[in-house]
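stuck on this fold:
=====
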Amino acid sequence: MRGTFSADMRVQSDGGLTAGLAVGITDRFMFGLSYGASRLIGSDKPILYPQPEVILKYRLLDEAVTTPGVAMGLNTQGFGTYNDADSLKRYAVKAYGAYLVGSKNWKSPFGNVGAHFGVNYNFTEQLDGDDDVSGFLGFDVEVNPELSFLFEWNAALNENDMTAKTLALSKGGYFNAAVRWTFVEHLHIELDFNNLLFDEEKVGYVNRELKVTYIEYF
C-alpha cells in the first residue's frame, strides 16, 4: 500500500546473496530495485550481478467475493548465478520479466488460503535463443497466524531451446515449496526448497535458500 516498504534478502546457493527494496508509491503502484552477487559469502571472489534489477507492480482490479484481484508488473531479477557468457547473459533461472497475474483468497478454519496464476514474458534474457511466453502457478496455506506453507510452479517455457537446454536445471518446469514463519509482526523468515523436479543428469540435490522479508510503514 501507499506509504509502506518491503525489504528482503535471499541467501542462495554457492554463497549468493540478493537484496531488494520496494516502496508503495500509491495504493495501486509499487516500485523497487534489487541487486546481488554470487559467491558473496565464502572465500571465492564474488561475482557481481551486471546491474540493479527493476521491480514494478500495478494492481488493475481489486479482489472481490467471486473474482480474483489482477495485477500487472515487471520483475527483471533472476535467480541464482548470473552466466555472463556471450551466448547466454542470463541468470541460472530466468526472471519472470513482464507479467500479468490473478490472485484469489479464501478463509479456512486455520487461516487464509490463496491461489495465484499468471503469464510472463522475459525480454531481457534472450541471447540463449529462447523467447517463449511462459506461465506460473502459486498456492499458499496459512496454518496459524505465524506459520504458512507455500508452493509454486514456474513452467519455464523460455528455458528449453538451444543453449538454454544445457543450462536449465529443471525438467517440466521449476516446482518450489517453502515454509514461512512470521517471527514478529512485519518480519517473515522463509525456508525455500527449490527445483524439486530437478534434472538428475545436471544436479543431484534440491536447492535450499533462506529468505528474510521486513515490511514497514513510513
